[in-house]
Structure formats: C-alpha cells, structure tokens
Amino acid sequence: MDEEQLLRQVARGDRAAFEELYRRTAPWLAARLRRRCADPDLVAEVMQDTYLAVWRAAGSFAGAAGEGSGAGWLWSIAGRRLIDGFRRRARQQAVPVAPPPPHAPAAEDEALDGVLGDEMSTALRDLAPELRAVLQAMVLDGFTVRETSILLGVPEGTVKTRARRARLVLREALS
C-alpha cells in the first residue's frame, strides 16, 4: 500500500494503517522539519500536532478531488504547524526564531539536482544562502510571502526583495 491508500484506510479509523503511515513518513518529515527549525522541542511538537491532525482529518484527504500525494498533504500540514509554532514562539519571545545554518545537502536538494540539470542546479547552489532559503520556502515548500517571513524571521518586504533578487540572479546565470 502507498501513502494515499494508507490515508484512505486511516480515514476509516484503521489504527494499523495509521501506525504504518507514521512508520513510513515520520523519519523524512522530521528530517525536513529539522532543516527548517533548530529547536528539537518545537519539531517534536509539530510532529505530534501533524499526526494528530492526520488522524482527525484523513477523511478530507481521502475525499478530496484530485487528491494529490499523501506525502505532499502531510508536508502541507506539518509546514503550517511549523509556521504556527514560530508564531507562538515569537509572541512568547521578543527575538525571532531563525532557521539553522545549512548542513549537508538534503535529500530534496539531491533529488532536484537529478531533475533540474547541471546548469540550473549550479545556479541554485551558487545563490546566496538567504536568497536560496526564500526560494526554497516559496517555490519548493509552497509557502506564502507571509508564511516565509515568519519561517525565516524576516519582514515580508525582505522576503519579496530576496525573491526578486533570486529570480534576477538565476535569470542572469542561466542566460
């Protein structure tokens, strides 16, 4: 069974399907969250909230037209929960939460390298880290300008400026 089929089973209240879905998806989801948040407590909180939401709302995935991928649906829930967690923390603290510095290439980066081609992969790798973070959040993760602003801990205007600069730099590198 794939994740979409497991989600349909979870929608019917199948605990074994939920456990299998968790076993398959929790490792990559946690790794993806850790790349965007250095606080292990917040990551654990987001994971718990995400899978609780999945258990409660699996029917909304199973009944959706076009449905999409189960992994994409899980990530959209987790990404929104992470943004909510950043908002809560920002209200509790005066200091904005910044993402961790980049580490070894993520699996998603390696996968993109194989899909995009050498020229585009090189251009993306050569982008300044702050420009690449904006593109990753907005293009790859599908966050809005506002959500990207919260995720990266920068004003919305800065997100817009960085997105524009990143597009210009990529255009120049690829021309």
UniProtKB/TrEMBL annotation:
This is RNA polymerase sigma factor. Signal peptide: none annotated. Keywords: Sigma factor, Transcription, Transcription regulation. Residues 21-91 form the RNA polymerase sigma-70 region domain. NCBIfam families: sigma70-ECF. Belongs to the sigma-70 factor family. ECF subfamily. It holds the Pfam family Sigma70_r4_2. Gene3D superfamilies: 1.10.1740.10, Winged helix-like DNA-binding domain superfamily/Winged helix DNA-binding domain (1.10.10.10). PANTHER family: RNA POLYMERASE ECF-TYPE SIGMA FACTO (PTHR43133), RNA POLYMERASE SIGMA-70 FACTOR ECF SUBFAMILY (PTHR43133:SF46). Residues 119-168 form the RNA polymerase sigma factor 70 region 4 type domain. InterPro entries: RNA_pol_sigma-70-like (IPR039425), RNA_pol_sigma-70_dom (IPR014284), RNA_pol_sigma70_r2 (IPR007627), RNA_pol_sigma70_r4_t2 (IPR013249), RNA_pol_sigma_r2 (IPR013325), RNA_pol_sigma_r3/r4-like (IPR013324), WH-like_DNA-bd_sf (IPR036388).
